[in-house]
Design a protein that fits this description.
Structural class: alpha+beta
Number of helices: 3
Largest sheet: 4 strands, mixed
Number of strands: 8
Order of helices and strands: HEEEEHEEEEH
Shape: elongated
Helix content: 10-25%
Length: about 140
């Protein structure tokens, strides 16, 4: 029994000595870069619009008012690695008239096509902007 304890202690010491590294100054730090995307609607129409967007991979949506001839940030998303594209952030976008009690959509975008969004940089984020014109909602 005594020899089993000594053998176990010897195996433990040998195993732990392999974990020692006298050449390094500590554990290696791994840096995972995160990124952020901001999504804007540029409403170049004559109408104030409600934009209802369905968030990708979540069972939720949200509505934002975008006034005529204005640009409004509607959503922000983050990820590890590259900036999330519009198609990875949204399932759909539905545009309706803000002042109208009728909730009939003027425009529904589904699926989301990344190439329809202008991409520019912002401080610490990628800016995606979708232009909506009178021709889009007529």
């Amino acid at each position: 029994m005594r020899s089993v304890k000594i053998l176990s202690l010897l195996v433990l010491v040998i195993s732990l000595s392999g974990c020692l590294d006298s050449t390094s100054n500590g554990p290696e730090v791994i840096i995972e870069h995160s990124s952020r995307s901001n999504y804007y609607i540029a409403n170049h129409t004559d109408s104030d619009l409600n934009v209802t967007y369905a968030i990708a991979f979540l069972n939720m949506d949200s509505t934002v008012a975008v006034l005529a001839n204005s640009t409004t940030k509607i959503f922000e998303a983050g990820d590890i690695g590259s900036s999330p594209s519009p198609s990875s952030a949204f399932e759909s976008l539905v545009f309706s008239e803000l002042s109208n009690n009728n909730t009939s959509p003027l425009l529904t975008i589904q699926p989301i096509v990344d190439q329809n969004w202008a991409v520019t940089g912002e401080k610490d984020a990628t800016r995606f902007e979708l232009l909506i014109t009178n021709e889009d909602i007529d």
